[in-house]
Amino acid sequence: MVEAFFSRGWCVLPFDARVKTWGEAAWRAGREAMQAPSMRQWWVCENTWFVGVDALPNDETGSINNVPFGGAPVTAIKALYGSWPDLHKAQLSVVSPGYPRPREDESEAAFGYRLRRDAAHVDGLKRGPNGERFLEEPHAWIMGLPLTANEPDQGPLVVWDGSHEIMRNAFAAALGDVPPEKWSVTDIRQPYQQARRAVFEQCQRICVQAKPGETILVHRLLLHGVGPWADTYESAQEHRAIAYFRPELNSVGNDWLKLR
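^ Phytanoyl-CoA dioxygenase PhyH, sequence as received from the core. Prediction below:
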């Protein structure tokens, strides 16, 4: 698993009953969060995508409504990175039939990128007022926990296999001579865009399939996005839901640029 993850930049961990039980509790809480007035801001793309940042009421151990978090995800992260951090409140990503629709104030070009390229991105980069890109949140890793079935035509998580290496090389060239404390104000838009184009040419696009009880691990530098909910897809499900943990590094240093 370790070698496969660092080689490809992502993996799906096998089913774990403890993860499934946690996911059931998380989805109960998630459905409440989706309807809460305080969370209304997170319904975007004409109500076809709920991007609920910090939407789930878990504690720092991951426990949610007295259901503990543990098992395969914790074991895997310790094997990959050596330790398990305190957790933030999980993000809840929910896609509905009709996605993608234009996001509020989204330009025609940006919506075209969402349609053609699944809004592919590296997490943690902030867009500046003139299109600049800055490192705002240096994540340690990304963990997705399916709360519903994830099918290829049902708004899936999309990854570009092995793209973390291309993105890493581009960011290292752009930031290698810049003190880490200045990374958050250093514009990396040009190398970022060039690296994405290289990824689209060289890396395979994969729709990740996983079910409740399985765990999706994604390298922090992997290019990924959200695929469309196909018009022809028929399902009894009203939503595709994934909970995400994305803890930040304690200090940026050069750790963010490491492949391992």
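The first strand starts at residue 10 and ends at 13.
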